[in-house]
Amino acid sequence: MVKAELDAAWQESLPGTPNHHEEGGWIYQMTTGEVLTFVRATPGAPGDTYMSLANPPSVPGFTLIATYHTHPVLSSDFGFPEASRDDLLHSGYTNVPWLIRSENGIESVGPERLGAEPYGVWLHGYENNRVDTTWCPANRGGG
């Protein structure tokens, strides 16, 4: 279900075309079970490499468990398919995993699950690339 949503976002982001843009949103889990729902954010502008994932909406009866988006600029077009430093840092704001779908498949950055590593995040696969996120408002009880 999650892979299908990320693959759909990837196709809708028009990778490798002049109109590429980021697609993505948030993944929520029902608080009483394993039911998942996806809420899409406003897509990025055509030809741009940015979209806002700030302020995840509140979904009654559901808990935010992950954020996801695409990196549609192909490496052959001098794109950067891997998670960016901003992706890593912003995962500290939401304190949930960030999933990035690119030509390389799906990559996860930030905490491994909701609430894990609340005062620092890991770029998975790079053990020495730890970023202190204690300054993030989400980790100080702020918004």
Protein architecture, described:
The chain contains 2 helices and 7 strands, in the order αβββαββββ. It is of the alpha+beta class. It has a 5-stranded mixed sheet. A two-stranded antiparallel ribbon has the order 6-7. The C terminus is likely disordered.
What's this entry about, in short?
The chain is an alpha+beta fold and 143 residues long. The chain has helices at 2-12, 85-94; strands spanning 24-30, 36-40, 62-70, 98-102, 105-109, 121-122, 130-131.
Q: What's the SSE blueprint?
A:
Elements: H1 2-12, E1 24-30, E2 36-40, E3 62-70, H2 85-94, E4 98-102, E5 105-109, E6 121-122, E7 130-131
**How far apart are the termini?**
30 Å
Class by alpha and beta content: alpha+beta
Give the overall shape: globular
Calculate the mean pLDDT score and round it.
Answer: 78
Q: What's the number of helices? A: 2
Instruction: Count the beta strands.
Output: 7
Radius of gyration: 15 Å
Low-confidence runs (pLDDT<50, min 5 residues)? 117-143
Q: Report on the biggest sheet.
A: 5 strands, mixed
Describe the strand arrangement of the main beta sheet, using strand numbers: 2-1-3-4-5
Series of H and E elements: HEEEHEEEE
In the residues, how many domains can be counted?
A: 1
Helicity level, as a percent range?
10-25%
Q: Per DSSP, what share of the residues sits in E-state strands of 2 or more residues? A: 15-25%
